[in-house]
Amino acid sequence: MIAAGLMVSFPGALWASTGKVKLDHANIDIHDTESLRRGAKYFANYCFNCHSIRFMRYSRVAKDLDISEDDVSKTMLFTGAKIGDAMNIALDPEDAKRWFGVAPPDLSVVTRSRGVDWIYTYLRSFYKDESRPWGVNNAVFKDVAMPHVLWELQGLQEATTGTINSKEGVEHTVITGFNLIEKGKMNPDEYNNVVRDIVTFLAYVGEPTKATRLNLGRWVLGFLVVYFVVMFLLKKEYWKDVK
Ligand code: HEC
């Protein structure tokens, strides 16, 4: 059964009694252009040093998010990159491996592989752990090689733990919540919104054609209806003298 520690509820990731972290809902709206624009900016500032999104081109972001190419060039473009280029990074994978132990993966389709709720929870679940190289661990990604790059905004939190018993009766120590021990520049609500914007942007990067595809679907259906009617009339016309 769940220990008393779990009765106190903290914001952030909580372990469900199954032993798996319960993910928080990202509640994103992929058609919210303002959120997408903010997300693109945060991504450029805080993630793009290490993570490429190479299925995406700068020019496409400018067009889809209605940001001028000039603005994209000034705020997002890597030195030497052109507006029509894929969004690669300058970081050498070999160097990255030496520094982090693992090369930071490309994030083009990460919202599809991990899901938006996972990433939303992940970016809010770093906690202090002196035994780790960057001084932090993560509740949904144990022993993660990524530093808490947003700590300035979120601050630093400490994990509170409790114990649960598995079905087999084995006792596990699990994270039950977080306490903010060092304040960041933002309060928790503001920070959650920043993370939501980043996740929205990544969801768009993973499915940039989602909006256009919906429209296309309507066109295709409309075309099929018209086509069917024309064919039906033609058939009638052809066979009218035969019978
Ligand atoms: C200093 C380099 C660095 C920065 C900056 C950085 N990351 Fe990472 N990130 C990593 C590394 C290294 C990993 C691989 C972790 C591992 O496998 O243990 C990683 C892993 C991830 C993963 C998990 C990918 C997967 O499916 O396994 C996500 C999601 C992620 N990062 C998102 C972000 C976002 C969003 C930002 C910006 C807010 C960001 N990262 C900034 C280095 C970085």
Itemize the secondary structure elements and their pairings:
Elements lengths: L13 E2 L5 E2 L10 H14 L6 E5 H7 L4 H7 L10 E2 L5 H8 L9 H4 L2 H7 L3 E3 L7 E3 L12 H4 E11 L5 E13 L4 H19 L3 H30 L4
Antiparallel strand pairs: 1-2, 3-4, 5-6, 7-8
Helix pairs in contact: 1-8, 2-3
The chain binds heme C.
Protein described:
With 243 residues, the chain is an alpha+beta fold. The model is unreliable at 1-13 (pLDDT under 50). The protein has two domains: 4-208, Cytochrome Bc1 Complex, Chain D, domain 2; 209-243. Helices cover 41% and strands 17% of the residues. The protein has a two-stranded antiparallel sheet with strand order 1-2. It has a two-stranded antiparallel ribbon with strand order 3-4. Strands 5-6 form a two-stranded antiparallel sheet. The chain starts with 13 loop residues before the first strand and ends with a helix. Bound molecules: heme C. The site of heme C has 23 residues, from α5 and α6.
Bound molecules: heme C
Helical stretch tally: 9
Secondary-structure content class: alpha+beta
Q: Which regions have little confidence, pLDDT < 50, spanning 5+ residues? A: 1-13
For the termini, the CA-CA separation is 80 Å
Strand content: 15-25%
CATH H level, superfamily name of the largest domain = Cytochrome c-like domain
Helix content: 40-55%
Question: Which sequence of strands runs across the widest sheet?
Answer: 1-2
Give the topology string: H per helix, E per strand.
Answer: EEHEHHEHHHEEHEEHH
Overall spatial form: extended
Overall number of domains: 2
